Amino acid sequence: MEAVYQTTRQVARSNASVLLLGETGTGKELIAKAVHQLSPRASGPFVRVNCGALSEGLLESELFGHVRGAFTGAVNNRTGRFEAAHTGTIFLDEINSTTLHLQVKLLRVLQEREFERVGDTKTVQVDSRVIAASNHNLMELVDEGRFREDLYYRLNVVPIELPPLRERREDIHELVAFFLNHYNEQYDRYVVHLPPATLEVLEAYHWPGNVRELQNVIERAIVMALGDELAVELLPNAVRGLDKPRTGSRQPADLESLAHDLVAEGLNSAGAQEDALHTKIVNRVERELIAQVMAACDDVQTRAATRLGINRNTLHKKLKEYGLDEAKENNQ
Predict the structure, then answer these.
(1) What is the model's pLDDT at position 249?
(2) What is the pTM of this model?
(3) Domains of the chain in sequence order
(4) Which end of the chain is least crowded, N or C, by CB within 10 Å?
């Protein structure tokens, strides 16, 4: 993290594009804001766009704006986010979610600093610094033909990789202290004592949701606390390792065994095709993983999607595909 902070300070002084890499919840947006605030553009706007939250058509209009009549429902001219970020910084979160069609337009903005609004032929000049973020390996997407190589290199001028919280557990104590101060002030509480047993549990947990999950856990604890101590009992069952798996599901440690069983099953089946076997293994293991994470998140899809590092819509489709939504209804 010290290297991350040093790189952030150094790159902030320039106008270079920055690519933030890391799992969901590691603090990519905070680093993007820091780059902006430490830069000569600090007095200008900081505009965030979640590229994974909108369809291609809506995202294109959101980024570049549109003119009246450009499509059904476009009753007025609208300024896009790139124009709104003029003289400032635009942060493109989940850049890996963009389509190849939209990537062409993003490349042009990066190279030429110009674009046209949707439905218009007039060229708009813009001066905005681009910071992008991805929770997927973009080079792998390039190899798969799902992300343009030229756009990747345009974005990847200065890469900054944020490590997951499980790889920097020594920071947990200070992060907890920070969140305690923040939420004590926000909720007018006085939860100031952190017992060693509580810290031990927090440091032992694997934090799939990273710093964002830790923040939510501390906020919940302060809201529920009756005294001035952050007792172990205030932590969610998942953090304390007390979650019970749903009926018929496996423990996380069994996923590897499941994969080995499926491989053995495929090898013992005469005429088994390699591609079909691979698909079968992936689907079975993915289904088990999603079922476990949903159980750990009390079937709250937004939380589960965050832990899995995927879009909520993608999770919803997976639940339907694997029949997990039906299983939930049958158990209720």
Answers:
(1) 44
(2) 0.68
(3) 2-163 (3.40.50.300), 169-240 (1.10.8.60), 252-331 (1.10.10.60)
(4) C
